[in-house]
Design a protein that fits this description.
The protein has six helices and 16 strands. With about 325 residues, the protein is of the alpha+beta class. It has two domains: about 170 residues, Immunoglobulins (Immunoglobulin-like, Sandwich), CATH 2.60.40; about 130 residues, Glutaredoxin. A seven-stranded antiparallel sheet has the order 4-5-8-7-6-9-10, with no helix packed on it. Strands 12-11-15-16 form a four-stranded mixed sheet, with helices on one face.
Length: about 325
Amino acid sequence: MPGVSREYDVEGMTFIINHINGIGRTLRGLNPRALIVLPVLLLLLAAACSSDAEEPIISEEQEAGGPDYSAVIITTDMAVGSNRIVFGIIDRDGMPVHAEASEVSAYFLVPKEDAREIKDSATAQFVSRPSSVGGVFVAEVDLDTAGAYQIDVNSTSSDGTSVFAQASFILKETSSTPAIGAPAPPSVTHTVAKAEDISHITSSLEPDPALYEFSIHEALQQAKPLVIVFATPAFCVSATCGPQVGELNKVKDKVGDKANYIHVEVFENPHLLEGARPAGGLVPAVDEWGLPTEPWTFIIDSQGLVYAKFEQFTSAEQIEAKLLEIS
């Protein structure tokens, strides 16, 4: 059941928030400055959820314990155009829901109106994640308007239960990472030939020297497809960075010299620690590529243009399929 909609004005922007389960499930009327004022908006939301206003803000659904299922979007860098949305589904107890696939519909939330417009739909495939039980759903959607969105997810769990879940996200005009079709930044990255020891340029426990043969700027000059993984195997919060580098090795071993392959450790001098963390800060390429998270995988074509990009863990099969389209 719907909750109670309330309208807020923040720095000249109007937001209509539907209060469901104590959180704002929809944000409306955004422009690119919305990302800056979202913390303010969340404070307003928190205040509204605890106010003594006469109008009730707790829906019948909330009183009943909230929706049976919720979607949790993992992707952070989505912009106008083609987007790879990665999400999970959890039940009311926070336990992950398993299914072979799910149907996803992406809706644009109309500014200043309690209305939404469908923009695209797709089938999301379930992808198992390494180092953990379960996995995530992955869907490709094409979205043409920046602003606030909501996805509806319909699926059947592995035990035959019908599942409906929703989640909201912000679509930007432009992504912080290089856009599909944009030139790849010619970053100067560390190579094994110039390192005193390979442990000084990667935190991988079993590094493959072939992944550090070229700097990115050198590989871009070879008129050859290139696969780049930005990851810190030893310090990754999501515990998927080491496995992601392993997936890169699988692609290299299978596709071979049709392409070049580079792993970029995101920390300088990962062998030097302060406590349990690297002391050297981030390598310049992290800023040059606009990375908001890691791991990230990029496929660059022989012209030096971004052909595909993947946020978070991506299987060797998915990377290989995209790479073979241009190899």
